[in-house]
Design the sequence.
């Protein structure tokens, strides 16, 4: 709810012209909707940003932004579902070295079966959310099928990665480092629960684990423990084949989805 005691307080901030640019019939109706938390004060074009910031609860703003993102993601899922209907799934299975049977393509997501039929319906034992569905649909529709190369690069070296690097560090690498610093079973769970594989790398990391959110989109997590005078560090690398098999948007989405999953897991572990 907005930081106001009643709708009238909000009404007084408005232009009062009943211009309907906010899609409400009157300013009073808009004020009531803002008071109930159904609308944002920022949706009236006559209210300046300072007033919005002073009256809106930051948590409400965050919730609304998350709801907007959810709507956006759901629309993306529907667009991809339409493309799945127009995709020859048998040919896609050959391209991706995946399984095809009974009108369904089955790919491995974190080592678990994830099947999609010709209508875009999903059959899987893993928890389905748009953060998984969008990259998997993108993979089935658009991946060239290039197999892993064994060459690891940071996000910034992928096409379009530089623009997302700052966000990726904030939303993925830093939270993962926090989890790895405090949750001692983190890497074991990566190996056991998510079918990760330990590996040697040229990066000289203390722990290096490769995960396969999709078979032809491996991700390498490298962790360096804290040492005298040196903080711990965690960095994420991508096999260069991901460029051929996923859009940069899907790569970022997968990374953010993985972090959300690990966060949940670490919270359960802590409770
Ligand atoms: S856009 Fe603003 S001024 Fe116009 S009707 Fe809505 S609340 Fe009133």
Sequence:
């Amino acid at each position: 709810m907005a930081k106001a005691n009643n709708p009238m307080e909000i009404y007084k901030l408005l232009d009062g012209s009943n211009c309907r640019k906010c899609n409400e019939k009157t300013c009073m109706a808009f004020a009531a909707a803002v008071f109930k938390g159904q609308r944002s004060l920022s949706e009236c074009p006559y209210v300046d940003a300072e007033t919005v910031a002073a009256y809106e609860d930051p948590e409400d703003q965050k919730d609304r932004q998350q709801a907007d993102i959810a709507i956006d993601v759901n629309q993306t899922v529907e667009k991809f579902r339409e493309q799945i209907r127009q995709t020859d799934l048998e040919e896609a299975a050959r391209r991706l070295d995946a399984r095809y049977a009974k009108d369904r393509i089955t790919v491995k997501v974190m080592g678990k079966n994830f099947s999609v039929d010709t209508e875009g319906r999903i059959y899987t034992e893993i928890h389905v959310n748009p953060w998984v569905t969008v990259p998997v649909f993108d993979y089935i529709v658009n991946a060239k099928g290039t197999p892993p190369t064994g060459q690891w690069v940071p996000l910034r070296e992928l096409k379009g990665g530089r623009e997302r690097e700052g966000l990726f560090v904030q939303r993925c690498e830093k939270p993962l480092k926090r989890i790895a610093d405090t949750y001692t079973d983190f890497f074991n769970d990566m190996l056991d629960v998510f079918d990760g594989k330990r590996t040697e790398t040229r990066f000289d990391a203390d722990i290096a684990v490769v995960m396969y959110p999709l078979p032809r989109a491996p991700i390498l997590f490298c962790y360096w423990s804290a040492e005298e005078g040196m903080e711990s560090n965690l960095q994420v690398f991508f096999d260069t084949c991901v460029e051929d098999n996923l859009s940069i948007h899907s790569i970022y989405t997968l990374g953010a989805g993985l972090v959300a999953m690990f966060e949940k897991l670490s919270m359960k572990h802590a409770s």
About this structure: The chain has a mean pLDDT of 85. The first strand starts at residue 99 and ends at 101.
